[in-house]
Amino acid sequence: MILLLLSAAGFWAGMQNALAGGGSFITFPALLFAGLDPRAANITSTIALFPGQVAICWSGRRAAGGVPGLTLAALITISLAGGAAGALLLLATPAAFFARLVPWLVLFATLVFAFGQPIRRRLPADAHLSPRILAAIQSAIAVYGGYFGGGIGFLMLAALTLAGQAIRMAATTKNLLATVMNSSAFIVFCFSGDVRWPGALAMALGSVAGGFTGGWLLLRAPEKLLRGAIILIGTSLTLWLFLR
């Protein structure tokens, strides 16, 4: 019964990751409910969601891209290095400090995403984050993603849209970059001894199905509906994180 619940949580998380991010906020508490300690739940969640992220990345790979002055290849390199650094940091230190920051990070990212487009419309057409600032922000997100990971989708959506990407391209690009940074963490965590493999495998199967479902919706949903859904998810996650 527990494995079925974990699989359902994986499906929900995989679909949510494709649309906006925040899937770990579904899998992490589900694994805590299944009896895992917080550190093992965090590591197992990363392992479980990775196959779904690969599915998401594959389904929307053609729509991803970089920004002027910062290519997609450069963003991938930054994400790979930062994800590895964050994963190694997690194995060496407790995650309590970063966990306390998560609600504020998600709140900030949701607000930036929600109001970033209206603000940009009032600015000159060429006003956006510079490539250097985007590279610095993506580096920080990648380290945080390897360390804890909660809310990285919202943070990348906020940064990429402020750098000038359209919402659909930003969503598919953040899916690719999330997969890349988590691939580093996935490899590190596989050898950590902290993964609870039965739960991880059950959740991974659900996350793959949810990833393909969410990827299909991402490429076909109207942009206004997509933006509204992302803001709603971000607001809900923020409230849950502050109230839990």
Question: What features would you describe in this structure?
Answer:
The chain has 244 residues and is mainly alpha-helical. The protein has one domain (2-243). 80% of the residues lie in helices and 0% in strands. The chain is built from ten helices and no strands. Helix 2 (24-33) packs antiparallel against helix 3 (38-59). The longest helix has 27 residues, at 96-122. The two termini are 25 Å apart.
In short:
With 244 residues, the chain is mainly α. 80% of the residues lie in helices and 0% in strands.
Layout of secondary structure:
Elements: H1 2-19, H2 24-33, H3 38-59, H4 72-92, H5 96-122, H6 131-147, H7 152-162, H8 167-190, H9 197-220, H10 223-243
Helix pairs in contact: 1-2, 1-3, 1-9, 2-3, 3-8, 3-9, 4-6, 4-8, 5-7, 5-10, 6-7, 6-8, 7-8
